[in-house]
Amino acid sequence: MKTITFYSYKGGVGRTLALSNIATRLAEFGKTVCMIDFDLEAPGIPYKFKKQLKSLEFETGLVDYLQHYVKYRQAPPNVKDFMTTVKEGTANQKEITLLPAGNIYSKDYWVKLSSIGWDKFFYEKDSTGVEFFFDLKEKIKNEIQPDYLLIDSRTGITEIAGITLSLLADEVVLLSVNNEENLEGTQQVLRTILQNNNPVLGTPPKIHFVMSRMPQKKEGQTESPSYKIIQKVKYRLNQFLTEKELDYQIDKVLTIHSEPELQIEESLKIAYDDEDRPSAIGMDYLRLFRALTDGDLTEEEKVLFKRKREYEKLKAEIFSEGKDRSERVVLLEEALSKYRDLDEWFILSYLSLAYYDVGDWENAEVYLKQSMEINPYDYITRFYLANTYSIQKNFNQALEIYEKLYSELFDLNYTNLLMDDVTVNMGLAYLRTGQTDKSLNLFKKVVEEFKPSFENYNIYASVLMQVGNYQEALNYVYLALELAPKEFMPNATLAEIQAHLGNDMEFYRNINMALSLGLKWEQIKKEPIYKKYLKEQRFIEMLARYDIYPEEEI
């Protein structure tokens, strides 16, 4: 476990945002990351990840952990109970966990914080503050087992800052802006870190010095304005270190440029090596990342990260708005051939659905089955496999899946669209296999117990029509039309019912309405009732008015 502390003498220099960018990139490289928010008076890490966190009101945190120690004179048995997950681990990114400061929205938080006597904790005879923090670090190492522990330190020259900089850190990121107050304070912190007269501290941590809020090069400027600032600051710091007889020199000063966009809304900006036009601040974070991971990443990890990036780009293209369905199939096949090892279930699932969308039922079935081998309990995959069987007239296989899904969803008290669709499709499969009573009972349950919808009323009307109960079918199709008078399907269903009743005038009136609302040949050719009308010139001419020219037999 490598521990890196991010510190700034004053706030407002982008310290926490820098830490958050580094944490995210480490996770993308497959490294497990744990963060600690040691800025107890003004914790900031949660706000950088507020889109990922369920809530900013944590049940427990570092202050609660500290308070338990102060109260009982011993640390809690484990630290994991005080942690929260910021980002769940995925196929392409490892987990990020956080030991937050605590619930700052609670009055108890500030009472607990004020009850911690730091002088007593660190300086009284037989004080055990140092041992406490070593124990905390060891617990994190053993329980969380992160590759990297990133600490967001408190500002100023304080006990907590001293602990996070000198006792806990393997490396330190010191951030400053170019003004006298910040630079003078940073010099004193440098001296504190490097003066190793306390044998407990051992070898001082490696230091990465970062100048923040640096001006960007403007159009027409031949030389970056940051260059002179960096050279001046570097000379100042090294002169200070020499004067204080400290055996250390700042070899490199990293930068983080100003970014006006971040003043409107903060976001993670770290760049990628393959970006065409990365922002200045994005490249700054990337250079900082390289410095912090120098020698840590293997060639295999770098190659894997590059492949993950290529896969993410391909995914973005696959799901880009307006992408043709057939083209999406081709791109998903490419993803499967190149990146199956990275995200197999996801690729197989979407490839199967892509084939389903283009009507290639055989391939849809193949990939749905492969997807189910990886995750046999996924409801959506099972539902679409059942649909594929049903479309190919393998109704018994479809019903086997529908019935299991229906039972599971019913037991879980599901009342969402999936439950509606499973119920409806199961009812239709019962109808196709001659199980009329089961079908009618199921659809009656749908219209009586589920949320009213024109789709469900219309389907029930169609089923009643198919079993010859035309009067009841009329009742339900009128309910559908009350909810959706401008939808073509209930108008078409009404036309079909009238056709069965021999009411040709009503048939033509309603089928004309359905055609005007978007009824297509694909829907017409599925229903045998239209066969007799295709022999009538009136119907042929009506279809022609809507650019429908039947060429297939029904």
Map the helices and strands.
Layout: E1 2-8, H1 15-28, E2 33-37, H2 45-48, H3 62-72, E3 84-87, E4 96-99, H4 107-114, H5 118-122, H6 129-143, E5 148-152, H7 159-167, E6 171-176, H8 180-194, E7 206-214, H9 225-243, E8 253-257, H10 260-264, H11 280-292, H12 299-318, H13 325-357, H14 361-374, H15 379-391, H16 395-411, H17 417-432, H18 436-449, H19 454-466, H20 470-483, H21 488-500, H22 504-516, H23 521-524, H24 537-545
Parallel strand pairs: 1-5, 1-6, 2-4, 2-5, 6-7, 7-8
Antiparallel strand pairs: 3-4
Helix pairs in contact: 1-11, 8-9, 12-13, 13-14, 14-15, 15-16, 15-17, 16-17, 17-18, 18-19, 19-20, 19-21, 20-21, 21-22
Structural features, described:
- Helices cover 56% and strands 8% of the residues.
- It contains 24 helices and 8 strands.
- α12 crosses α13, α13 packs across α14 and α14 runs antiparallel to α15.
- Among the domains are: 296 residues, 3-Layer(aba) Sandwich (Rossmann fold); 78 residues, Serine Threonine Protein Phosphatase 5, Tetratricopeptide repeat (Alpha Horseshoe).
- The model has no long low-confidence stretch (mean pLDDT 89).
- The protein has an 8-stranded mixed β-sheet, with helices on both faces.
- With 554 residues, it is α/β, with parallel strands linked by helices.
